[in-house]
Specification:
Blueprint: E1 4-6, H1 29-37, H2 44-54, E2 91-100, E3 106-107, E4 112-116, E5 153-157, E6 163-169, E7 180-192, E8 195-208, H3 211-217, E9 228-230, E10 250-253, E11 263-271
Parallel strand pairs: 1-9, 2-11
Antiparallel strand pairs: 2-3, 2-6, 4-5, 4-7, 7-8, 10-11
Helix pairs in contact: 1-2
Length: 311
């Protein structure tokens, strides 16, 4: 597999930076899937009925573990469905369902889901000079028209069923992390000047990808131009092997015989609307500065030290 090798140099640290307690959540995993992947023309009445039926289940799965936001977070992401800005890569549609873990896993309409992730070569907007490890072209060589301060970042506001949708590309990788997407769930704020203001952050976490699918994607252009040691889920410092409750996405290929056509990913995010978990600051595991050392002078940091490892 061109340029993709399992890294055995990174131990299974499982250094989870838990910044909030776990509570029951996620009972809408099935309903979230049904409403997220149903035909766009399906009535809201049907979707609501499905959600309501599932929310009466006796138990909910464990809430996804919260971790620190890492060194690549930037304030002021735009409210938008398509966050690609012309960045090339395998298409990825994310359908996420936000539920209230304290109220029978019912949908949380109006919740703002914020995501951010690296491009196909491991670069984040706002930090385009940070070395992703291995051998990769400079971020500027991708030929896109993307804004270096905003690409692959964005918010979406949950509909009446707690569902949001993002159009993006499959993330690449960077040392020493496995393939992942960062996420924050906000409530109590509102859209203002194209972004989301006010309220509070109820959950900070990450989404992960099946190793076999990720490594197949990384053989394709433009991912294949980044060579080096890719960290698998077993060796990642954050993913703890808990499946969906630890952020592992369920992925559905648009066309099984052709991974270049893209994937749909879904997950249910259980939150406590009264809790606050910004994920900022120290706490181990997910703090630190970008792999190349200091971040750009005009980019904010989370105040953690490099020894707390890369995001």
């Amino acid at each position: 597999m061109t340029g993709i090798h399992k890294s055995k140099t990174i131990t299974r640290r499982r250094a989870l930076a838990v910044t909030g307690g776990t509570v029951a959540a996620g009972g809408l995993a099935v309903a979230g899937y049904q409403s997220a992947f149903a035909d766009e023309a399906a009535s809201s009445t049907e979707a609501t009925a499905a959600a309501s039926a599932t929310s009466t289940a006796d138990a909910c799965m464990t809430l996804m573990t919260s971790v620190t936001e890492g060194p690549y977070y930037l304030d002021g992401a735009l409210v938008r469905k398509d966050i690609t800005e012309g960045k090339s890569g395998v298409p990825l549609t994310l359908r996420l369902t936000v539920v209230d873990a304290t109220d029978g896993c019912t949908p949380v309409p109006g919740a703002a889901v914020e995501i951010w992730h690296c491009d196909a070569w491991g670069y984040y907007s706002g930090y385009t000079t940070a070395n992703p490890g291995g051998s990769a072209p400079a971020e500027s060589e991708d030929g896109s028209t993307a804004d270096d301060a905003t690409y692959l970042r964005g918010y979406q506001i949950a509909n009446a069923n707690g569902v949001v949708k993002f159009e993006t590309v499959f993330p690449g990788w960077y040392t020493p992390r496995t393939c992942h997407i960062h996420v924050k769930v906000h409530t109590g704020g509102e859209k203002e000047d194209g972004t989301y203001e006010g309220g509070k952050v109820n959950h900070t976490g990450q989404f992960f990808f099946d190793d076999d699918i990720a490594q197949e994607v990384f053989t394709l252009e433009p991912y294949s131009r980044h060579s080096g040691s890719y960290t698998t889920l077993d060796d990642d410092m954050v993913y703890d092997g808990g499946g969906a409750s630890s952020g592992l996405l369920t992925l559905k290929a648009v066309k099984k015989a052709d991974p270049a056509r893209g994937y749909k990913g879904f997950l249910t995010l259980g939150i406590d609307p009264d809790a606050e978990n910004t994920g900022a600051g120290g706490g181990g595991g997910e703090g630190g500065t970008p792999p190349s050392g200091e971040p750009p002078a005009d980019a904010p940091t989370d105040g953690a030290t490099a020894s707390e490892s890369a995001s």
